[in-house]
Amino acid sequence: MSMDWDKLRVFLAVAEAGSFTHAGDALNLSQSAVSRQISGLEESLTVPLFHRHARGLILTEQGELLFRTAKEIFAKLAMTEVMLNENKERPKGPLKVTTSVGFGSTWLAPRINEFLDLYPEINLTIRLDDDEVDLSMRQADVAIRLNAPRQGDLVQRHLLTFHFHLYASPAYLRKHGTPRTVEELAEHRLIGYGTDVRPPFPEVNWLLSIGGLDLGERAVLKVNNYFAIFRAVQSAVGIAGLPDYMASWDTNLVRVLPDLQTPSVPAYFVYPEELRNSKRITVLRDFLLRKVGDQEF
Questions:
Q1: Model pLDDT for residues 151-205, shown as the tens digit of each residue
Q2: Domain span including residue 133
Q3: Nearest to 142 by CA among 17, 290, 287
Q4: Which residues are registered as beta bridge partners of 268?
Q5: Within a domain: residue 277?
Q6: Does 79 reside within a domain?
Q7: At which of 29, 44, 74 does a domain end?
Q8: Which secondary structure element, helix H or strand E, spans residue 269, and what is its range?
Q9: Which residue among 36, 128, 144, 166 has the highest number of C-beta atoms inside a 10 angstrom radius?
Q10: What DSSP state is assigned to residue 218?
């Protein structure tokens, strides 16, 4: 009996997604095609891999064993591919980076042209995702995160520290006035961060409890994405806490209560231990550290 690699790849996607439909979306396959691949794999192995329930799929004991093994194999294959493609003379080949939508859109993307001019043989992919992408599954080679990694097999390097302040648009302040004290924020329209299973950093809604106040009812809008919050502030929806680097994108925005004590959030450059010697990752890390050193955060 020999295992079919394509069927194993489909099995891994189904086990992670918990349904044929979601796995099909990720693989660009129909639900029926995914189901046929799984049935074929179960027939070749002569064991059931999933319990099928109305609410989704649950791995059987045999399925759990295959899932752990397949996940490890595909991760090692992907890592081997990276190392085989690594050029000792000049960094070249694919490099996948993931970071948040806000940071990637407003800070990282405008600086990528310079990086690609320096390293034209690197093929860069940037995945903007406010959820934490699994580096162990090679969904990306490098992550820039606001949370220190919990996995022990990841290398982390402090990249920068974001400083937050309150911002509003001139149009909003003309209409509603400018708060002069923290207490006056209770009279204003506030924009908070939406409910999230895994927020980008622990005190993400610091604005709504600032100064020991409970300002939750003043949140006229909650969005679980900082770039969308930034756009809402620009559109005069209300006052929000924004990282300074993002607010600086629009020089018309006004810093409200500028002397207020506000959070500082560290960001980390993170990658798998196996890629420690990757030249592509090294040159990207050094480039970003240089760019960070050129700017106030």
A1: 667 899 999 998 999 999 999 999 999 999 999 999 999 999 987 767 788 888 9
A2: 84-153+269-293
A3: 287
A4: 145, 158
A5: yes
A6: no
A7: 74
A8: strand 264-272
A9: 166
A10: G
Which are the contacts of 230, defined by CB distance < 8 A and separation ≥ 6? 102, 106, 240, 242, 246, 247, 249, 250
Q: How far is CA 149 from CA 122, 142, 241, 272, in A?
A: 26, 12, 24, 11
β-bridge mates for residue 223, sequence order: 193
| CATH number of residue 54's parent domain | 1.10.10.10
Domain count for the chain: 3
User: With the CA atoms of 245, 249, 253 and 254 taken in that order, what torsion angle do they form, in degrees rounded to the nearest 10?
Assistant: 30
- The 3-state DSSP class for residue 82 equals helix
**End-to-end alpha-carbon separation of the chain, Å?**
58
Using the 8-state DSSP alphabet, how is residue 106 labeled? I
The answer to whether residues 116 and 124 touch, using CB atoms and an 8 Å cutoff, is yes
Tokens (6 digits) for 59: 């791995």
- What amino acid is encoded at 209 in this protein? S
User: How many residues make up the chain in this entry?
Assistant: 297
Q: Are both 143 and 66 inside the same structural domain? A: no
Helices marked H in 168-278 — which ranges?
170-176, 226-234, 244-247
| Domain boundary residue, one of 74, 103, 133 | 74
Residues 222 and 170 in one domain: yes
C-alpha separations of 286 from 62, 117, 181 in Å: 45, 15, 42
190 & 211 share domain: yes
**Interval 141-148 mean pLDDT:** 87
Contact assessment for residue 270 and residue 145, using Cβ atoms and an 8 Å cutoff: yes
Strands 190-193 and 219-223: parallel
Mean pLDDT, to the nearest integer, of 36-62? 88
CA–CA dist 126, 140 (Å, integer): 9
Place of tokens 């939406």: 194
Residue 272 parent element (H or E): strand 264-272
**Residue 240 token pair:** 């929000």
Q: From CA 145, how far away is CA 269, in angstroms rounded?
A: 7
